[in-house]
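Pipeline run #58 for the internal structure catalog. This entry was flagged by the ingest filter as a single-chain record with no existing model, so it goes straight to prediction. Upstream metadata was stripped on purpose; only the residue string is passed forward. Reviewer on rotation: M.T. Logging verbosity set to normal.
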Amino acid sequence: MLIHVAVAVIINDDDTILISRRAADKHQGNKWEFPGGKVKDNENSQEALRREIMEELGIELQSAIQMTDILHEYSENDGASKTKVLLDVYEVREWLGEPKGVEGQPILWVKRSELAQYDFPDANKEIIALLQ
């Protein structure tokens, strides 16, 4: 199975980066992540990014520049099945509104140098390396 995800690396004027905590009941639950979500069949990754960021953070993206694509494979708990995720990663520096955890999720603004101190899903570790 392949899950296509649009991801935002949201960077504010003081060069800190927004991260949010995944819900406990989701895949890779309780880990920190860069906000975003699944790309639906009827949309491209930029459309998905704009929709997901509005749903999760209540902000309207003004621009998003593609940083990288990451293909990562997770082995599931049964050891036999695999889940592949394709992350389309975008840098975001312009938006309207004030980010908040619309779905009740905690959010933090973190310095680049501190990102590695947080527990992220393995697929996000390449993003962290790019930002260091």
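catalog note: The first strand starts at residue 2 and ends at 10.
catalog note: The chain has one domain: 2-131.
status: ready for reviewer M.T.
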